[in-house]
Amino acid sequence: MKTTVLNIKNNRIEMIDFYNEATEDYKFWSKDFNMHFGYFVPFRTNPFKRDSMLNQMNAQMIKRLNIGTSKHRLVDLGCGMGGTMRHVLKTYKNVIAYGVTLSDFQVKHGNMLLKGENGIILKENYNKTSFTYNSFNSAVAIESFCHSGHNDNSIKEAHRILKPGGILIIADAFLKKNVPELCKGSKYAYNKLCNHWSLEKLETIDNMIEKIKSFGFKNVKIENASFKVAPSVLHVPFAITGFILKKILSFKPIKQESFHNLKGSFYALLSGLHFKSFGYYIISATK
Hints:
- The chain is of the alpha/beta class.
- It has one domain (about 5-20, about 30-180, about 200-230, about 280-285): 3-Layer(aba) Sandwich (Rossmann fold), CATH 3.40.50.150.
- It has eleven helices and seven strands.
- It has helices spanning about 5-20, 25-30, 50-65, 85-90, 105-115, 150-160, 185-195, 205-215, 225-235, 235-250, 255-270; strands at about 70-75, 95-100, 120-125, 135-140, 160-175, 220-225, 280-285.
- The protein has a seven-stranded mixed beta sheet, with helices on both faces.
- Helix 1 crosses helix 11 (about 255-270) and helix 7 runs antiparallel to helix 11.
- It is globular, with a radius of gyration of 18 Å.
């Protein structure tokens, strides 16, 4: 997929506007403001309780960081409202957590939710932060790198700010095929998903792994978590219906950004049904 500099710039602006206006809607998706899908573990999470699965995704990310007991600096690259940060800070008292986002709304309200915790959200571009080299013991990116098209700069910057031995965990949707190889249904869902959720593009999982290795990461591990994530994705139509009914009954208009969010959620569900074209993966790598 060819992308001009102008498109990248416009996409970034649209993405900021999208999250400034639509973030508050995520309260309906998650009372903890987890702005991602969940992870289902039989007998541990309840498939009918969405937040149980969403917080389990946080737990799965944290488990892979090998935090230990010594002082640990964590950065969430595209942190949203800081849901994952709050989860790790409740679990580990030795962690100092930083989050970065380009949304003023998320910075302001996310820091309000973090009040009293050992963490802070900063207005930063995860492709080019102001952090010094070798600043963090670990970094996470949950469904955030897709907004810049799983860009080389995202991986390069994560490698730069991690300490030697630091761990990067990425949880995101990826293509299993190159875009020209997608069937008509998959390509339609893909284009609509990118449009409504302000995604630059999705990288193929094979290309993503090669990128990660090319920037110096080692011990790269990949988990196809598609079937673990699927139960939370199936909540989408019910969440959309409930959200619309709530707005109607409260006589409140639905913002344009909210419509985009709702449509993006629908196409995420539609994409997830094309198992041969899309997959949800958790990637861990060590600097």
